[in-house]
Each structure stands twice: as structure tokens, then as C-alpha cells.
Known about the structure:
By secondary structure, this protein is an alpha/beta fold. The chain has helices at about 10-20, 25-30, 35-50, 65-90, 100-120, 135-140, 175-180, 205-210, 215-220, 230-235, 245-255, 285-300; strands spanning about 55, 60, 95-100, 125-130, 145-150, 160-165, 170, 195, 225, 240-245, 270-280. It has 12 helices and 11 strands. The strands form 3 sheets. Strands 4-3-5-11-6 form a 5-stranded mixed sheet. A 4-stranded mixed sheet has the order 7-10-8-9. The two termini are about 55 Å apart.
Amino acid sequence: xxxxxxxxxxxxxxxxxxxxxxxxxxxxxxxxxxxxxxxxxxxxxxxxxxxxxxxxxxxxxxxxxxxxxxxxxxxxxxxxxxxxxxxxxxxxxxxxxxxxxxxxxxxxxxxxxxxxxxxxxxxxxxxxxxxxxxxxxxxxxxxxxxxxxxxxxxxxxxxxxxxxxxxxxxxxxxxxxxxxxxxxxxxxxxxxxxxxxxxxxxxxxxxxxxxxxxxxxxxxxxxxxxxxxxxxxxxxxxxxxxxxxxxxxxxxxxxxxxxxxxxxxxxxxxxxxxxxxxxxxxxxxxxxxxxxxxxxxxxxx
Length: 301
């Protein structure tokens, strides 16, 4: 049925060269060399039996026959592109259930989610905040966004665990607290209340002080323990001491001058970021749409 059609790759290159009126511009668009574009056009002209372009100054202009072919080729590729987009939109439309930590959900994700839904109104995101590593299959969860250094341990082989960066952890407090402390060295933080997490993992105040050769546990009595980083941030925003926080959760507060880093000394342990999802997920196109957006947003901060 289509045996008389020219090479489709050559036709696509022709459509680009015809649109730009330039072999070099088409080469840049298609990631080809100018020589490759020129060679393809010669082959296409030989196959068709007539000239498609003629040179005028630095431009490659279409002949009368070339212009006629360009119009139908351009329309055909435009229709094909539109149909593919429609099919892709149908594939990604639907719900996506995401689990992550309470802090990431409340401080970062929910403040950005409107940007995603504006781009992809056909995808409904359901958020389940949890401190636990939920059983994704049992809970009907499509994607887990997890942080730490032990995410990959004991993970079932049926799940993909995609690393997508890491961030440092710093002491943070309000400008008022920082002014009252006027800390010049780490020991001076012991003059303040230190807000810590009930389950800190490897990101403890003790590890931060130990890394600097300071024994904080025996000398310091002003501890406030909370169960989530968003609660800790709320405490220090209201001038209650200093807490340790990963940069992706507090950078916007630092940029807005609501928080400061009293001592630019990072925690010895960085926070690694991972996406966890079933390798055989049926909604992989929808899932990838969301994870690609999230990675782009986090890398831009």
C-alpha cells in the first residue's frame, strides 16, 4: 500500500529543512551534521526524480515541486504528532497515589502541587503522608518518595528504587534566635534549646556535635523532641531554639529571611532522595510524568 512512499526519515529531514529554509538549521534541530542533511536531500531528489531546493544567497529555497511536497509533508507530520500527543494524554490521564514523609508532603509537595496540576490537569494526585515504609501493593500506592541512607536496604526485587539526588542538613533558627545566640562556634549552640526528632535516623544532633569533637549529650539539658520536621520548623520559626533541617525543606524560608543558618557547618550525613515504585506498574507513563516534574522542580531550587 505504501511501497511508493520515499524514505520517511528523509521526508522528516526534508520537512525540517523546508521549514527553516536551511540545511544547517535542520541539522541543528535534528542533531545531524549538515553533510548528512545534504546527503539525505540528494537521495530524496534522486528517488523522486525532481529537484526540491535551490540555493539563493545563504538560504535553501523550495522549488515549485518542493513547495507542493512540503505542504503535504508538513500537514502529515503535524497530524501524526497531534495523534501521538492525544494517545500519550490518554495514557497518563487518571489517578496517582503517592506516599512520602509528613514533612515533605506538608512543607514542600503541597506548596508546589498546583504547578503540576496546572501542567497536567488530567492527573489526579492523592497524597498519603506517613513516616513508615508502607507496603505499596497492599495500600494501593503507586509511588513512594523516600529520603535517607537506608532506603535501598531490604527492598523487594519487584520494586524499582530510583536515586534522584541528595541534600545537606544544617542547623537553622529564626533571625531573632540567631541574634541572641551570636554563635561564633558550635559549642555556643548549647546555650539554646535544641529541637530534635523522635526518630532522627542518622541525622541526630549528637552525630553533628560528635563530628566536631563536642560532647553534647552530657553537657546539654535543653532538648525539645518532636515527631516530624515540619513541627520542628514551626518551633524554630517561633523563636524556640535551633533544629537540624535538610535544605530542600527550609531553603524557601531562608530565602524569605524567616530562617537563617547560624553556623554553616553541614551534618556529616547527607539526605539521599529516592523514588520507589513497582517495576511492572501499568501506569508507568503517568508515574514518569510526575517524577520528571518533581525532579525538575527540586533541581531548580
